[in-house]
């Protein structure tokens, strides 16, 4: 049997332990919601102060050049690209995940109209994060309902060939399901989609920074994702978009603003898209939020993603094992896949009173979140979560469940995005 | 003749003088580029620190509710609405000006397709800020080139009836021209556009916070604008969108993300637009940039916009008078209209060597900006620019021009947006 001491020893021997110093968490808090909003980075406050006082206050308008503000989307994009196997010159940080999906899907459908004309279905998961579905609905409605957004459940999506009829132009998949933590095999799934004649956009919101991603190696077409979950960019920090080199210059995207113009300072009256990934930019970006997001990305420059993934799986293995050993008599079900190759960086457990149970955990300083319906969701971020944290969480859960020490919901637990 | 002492006396008697304390400018700097990037607000650093350390660091995911993060677009929107005569519940702060124009124009064309079918022209100014034109081009391209973006020059736009044929579905106008400072009469122009059967979207980037705007009273349909110029929201702070009450619930806009959903936390698979202005939201917003932008907006709660406008005109009158009196022998032309009713809050002066001249001014600590072609642009922000600043600027300009003390361009002076 595992005990707390064994967990303490694992923490002591954890090669990623030093990264805990890169984050500031409130005393006494176990934070298992980094897959909704990553923890505060230790350098964030100083960076924000520098941007406000020096770059804005002293540099003023000159900082668009001298402080590199204008290039922040590309500067940060390069750093993310290194984490997701995107290759240089293929990623920008800008706008929101939802808006980036609109750009990507619009460009992808435009390209497919040339490469595979007559296909009219956009396929996505019923269980995808709803905003992804909503954006696809908004896009296809705008295109005159020429296209149909077809929802399939995760099982069908995983066994894609049955759903991949020759009507399908585009598939949009969340690499890791926000609710269950189910992970797709990116390379195999991309290959199946391409074999079926469709293009694919991957939503990396729950995988970027959590596990090794190899976009270019998987032959993916496009990807989007956020920076404020496992990448610790800060609340609502701008999102990213990646487009494969082969597709970047095929078509402009419809949100064709001046930041995506070939010569933005010429003030020409006609839009000429920039070559490369810059054409996926639109308008002026929130410098302060971008700059603080960079602090989170810079931490990853020192982190070995293989080690991050390895610890993530050890943490979730431990969580599942303890849940089975110590919560045997309760109506719980672990809905996160047991197989490593199908698991993201979280453990999701259903319980009929999940909302109240999570509220009770939060009252004890253990912050996970609740997801409809009936899911207790625990995000495991290897850079600042330890094995003892997992032990203490399961023990608190056991105590709450054993003693039915929950009452009416006191917290409305809303997630930032997914 | 005016002299510097007369300017000093005017500063002493300036009823807005106390607002200078709400801003922090570098010692020895005269800042006349607040129409590109407003000055640092005195409260910005403390607000950024609070958001990073307390709201993010301590509140963590809970701050989406407890710190009001989720409602920031509406909270800030209400504050802007009060400045532009929008009425309550009609404005949100979100995304970029370019993206908000896409949403507004898409919704407006959708509505016009019902109300005035068969109209296929989107009319805008040749002299509009280019990104507005680019976005309209992107939108109409996406709509299958059913629509044509037609550019007319400012003179034609001002005498709209000649351009307002029965082909015109939508007119998009910058309330104040970013280059020349020319101001449209919003009420009269809106009336003419409506009489011609078209809808209008106003771009308020160069008027919000600079002069009194009465969107609802003018009968306008929609408006967009940024928060980082005269509203001093900080570099790249999110933009705003206003939609008249009569149009808000007519159609959804195509960037239909979960923040615009009627019940965003239900995680339903179908998009149902929220009632009211919230449907113009899309995805998660950059909290840090939004929070610091609020500091700028809160300053206006204490400012009388009539007094702001009055001082703005006094400053630009003084600038023009001094330029005429003290720079008589130089090849300059004031391109900003002399008539108050046609003037925004800037003075633009052409000179054949404008780029080099502006570089020389900046070397002396007087920051204006250069705009293609040949324009020296001086933004006049009444909350922190004084009459003596104008005197000193024209004197520096005189010295530079008299002595031809400019040389090859040393600064690349790029503006943030317009």
TrEMBL record, chains A, B:
<feature type="binding site">
    <location>
        <position position="203"/>
    </location>
    <ligand>
        <name>pyridoxal 5'-phosphate</name>
    </ligand>
</feature>
<feature type="binding site">
    <location>
        <position position="206"/>
    </location>
    <ligand>
        <name>pyridoxal 5'-phosphate</name>
    </ligand>
</feature>
<protein>
    <recommendedName>
        <fullName>Kynureninase</fullName>
        <ecNumber>3.7.1.3</ecNumber>
    </recommendedName>
</protein>
<keyword id="KW-0662">Pyridine nucleotide biosynthesis</keyword>
<comment type="pathway">
    <text>Cofactor biosynthesis; NAD(+) biosynthesis; quinolinate from L-kynurenine: step 2/3.</text>
</comment>
<dbReference type="InterPro" id="IPR015424">
    <property type="entry name" value="PyrdxlP-dep_Trfase"/>
</dbReference>
<comment type="function">
    <text>Catalyzes the cleavage of L-kynurenine (L-Kyn) and L-3-hydroxykynurenine (L-3OHKyn) into anthranilic acid (AA) and 3-hydroxyanthranilic acid (3-OHAA), respectively.</text>
</comment>
<keyword id="KW-0378">Hydrolase</keyword>
<feature type="binding site">
    <location>
        <position position="258"/>
    </location>
    <ligand>
        <name>pyridoxal 5'-phosphate</name>
    </ligand>
</feature>
<feature type="binding site">
    <location>
        <begin position="129"/>
        <end position="132"/>
    </location>
    <ligand>
        <name>pyridoxal 5'-phosphate</name>
    </ligand>
</feature>
<comment type="subunit">
    <text>Homodimer.</text>
</comment>
<feature type="binding site">
    <location>
        <position position="284"/>
    </location>
    <ligand>
        <name>pyridoxal 5'-phosphate</name>
    </ligand>
</feature>
<comment type="similarity">
    <text>Belongs to the kynureninase family.</text>
</comment>
<dbReference type="Pfam" id="PF22580">
    <property type="entry name" value="KYNU_C"/>
</dbReference>
<feature type="binding site">
    <location>
        <position position="98"/>
    </location>
    <ligand>
        <name>pyridoxal 5'-phosphate</name>
    </ligand>
</feature>
<comment type="pathway">
    <text>Amino-acid degradation; L-kynurenine degradation; L-alanine and anthranilate from L-kynurenine: step 1/1.</text>
</comment>
<keyword id="KW-0663">Pyridoxal phosphate</keyword>
<feature type="modified residue" description="N6-(pyridoxal phosphate)lysine">
    <location>
        <position position="229"/>
    </location>
</feature>
<dbReference type="InterPro" id="IPR015421">
    <property type="entry name" value="PyrdxlP-dep_Trfase_major"/>
</dbReference>
<dbReference type="InterPro" id="IPR015422">
    <property type="entry name" value="PyrdxlP-dep_Trfase_small"/>
</dbReference>
<feature type="binding site">
    <location>
        <position position="97"/>
    </location>
    <ligand>
        <name>pyridoxal 5'-phosphate</name>
    </ligand>
</feature>
<dbReference type="InterPro" id="IPR010111">
    <property type="entry name" value="Kynureninase"/>
</dbReference>
<feature type="binding site">
    <location>
        <position position="228"/>
    </location>
    <ligand>
        <name>pyridoxal 5'-phosphate</name>
    </ligand>
</feature>
